[in-house]
Every structure is written in C-alpha cells, then in structure tokens.
Amino acid sequence: MRGRGLLILLATSVVFLGALSSLRSSTEKRNDKQPAPATEPAAAKLPAAAAGEISAVMPADSRVKIKAGQRLKLQVRSATPDIALIEGLGLSFPVEPGLPSEITLVAPNSGRFDVALEIAGRKVGTIIVSD
C-alpha cells in the first residue's frame, strides 16, 4: 500500500516536471525568434513623387484620381478575409476585417486600374492615372 502511494507520487512528479520543462522550452523558442522584416511590393519601392502623396480608402473612395509618378497610399477594407487586386499593375495584397490592409505605390503610367476583391468577386474602386 505504501509502495503504491510512493509510485503515484513519483509518477505525478515526473508528469509535473515534464510539463514545466516543455513550457519553459517553448517560451525560450518564442523569445529566440527574430521578427520577419516587413516587405512591400516592388511598386511601393519606387521614388516619391514631387506632387505629394494621396490617401484613399476603398470601397468608400470608389474613384481615386492621381497623376503619373504620384504616390498613392491605398487602404482596402472588407468584412471578410479576401485578396485585393489592382488589375493592370499586377499587385495584390491580403485584406482582413478589422486590420489595416494598406499598400503604397507610385503610379507608373496613365490609365484606369480597377481595384477588386478576388474572393468576393467584386470591384471596389478604380485608380485613374493621368499625365
């Protein structure tokens, strides 16, 4: 009887120490990870335009007019997770509800560029670039 109690105590101690060890090693692993560097699409790395920066939110600002070479800071919102596509510029980025989904780009040429939500299958706006 006494041996069984000691065996139960020993088994409980081993489980407890194993859990502590596992907890400590997972905390150490989390602290060792370096945050990934933030990356922007290639179009966002173009030089700033002399005309200044324009900000827009889609779908609220359904049409945004800018000049070629001007910088545009565009935020796209969606009630569900989706992918924003800027057709004609070959740009896409994730959109999450409640999180800022933003891209900064410099318009390379004149034209009309639709902004759409890929999963929802709907257009949320147009970027109109003039010379």
Key features of this structure:
five-stranded mixed sheet, 131 residues, 37% strand, alpha/beta, 1 helix, Immunoglobulin-like
Can you tell me about this structure?
The protein has 131 residues and is α/β, with parallel strands linked by helices. The protein has 2 domains: 33 residues; 89 residues, Cupredoxins -  blue copper proteins (Immunoglobulin-like, Sandwich), CATH 2.60.40.420. The protein has 1 helix and 8 strands. It is elongated and about 90 Å long. About 26% of the residues have low confidence.
Short précis:
The protein is an alpha/beta fold. 24% of the residues lie in helices and 37% in strands.
Question: Topology, pairings included?
Answer:
Layout lengths: L1 H31 L20 E6 L4 E5 L3 E6 L5 E5 L4 E5 L6 E5 L4 E7 L4 E9 L1
Parallel strand pairs: 1-3, 2-8
Antiparallel strand pairs: 3-6, 4-5, 4-7, 7-8
Report the average pLDDT across residues: 75
Q: What are the low-pLDDT stretches, counting only 5+ consecutive residues below 50?
A: 13-17, 22-50
User: If you compute it from the alpha carbons, what radius of gyration comes out, rounded to the nearest whole angstrom?
Assistant: 26 Å
Q: CATH topology of the largest domain, which one?
A: Immunoglobulin-like
Tell me the β content: 35-45%
At the fourth CATH level, what is the homologous superfamily of the largest domain?
Cupredoxins -  blue copper proteins
| Corresponding CATH architecture of the largest domain | Sandwich
| Largest sheet strand order | 2-8-7-4-5
Structural class: alpha/beta
What is the distance, rounded to the nearest whole angstrom, between the alpha carbons of the first and last residues?
92 Å
Counting H and I runs of at least 4 residues, what is the number of helices?
1
| H/E topology pattern | HEEEEEEEE
Q: Report the principal-axis shape.
A: elongated
- How many discrete domains? 2
Largest sheet: 5 strands, mixed
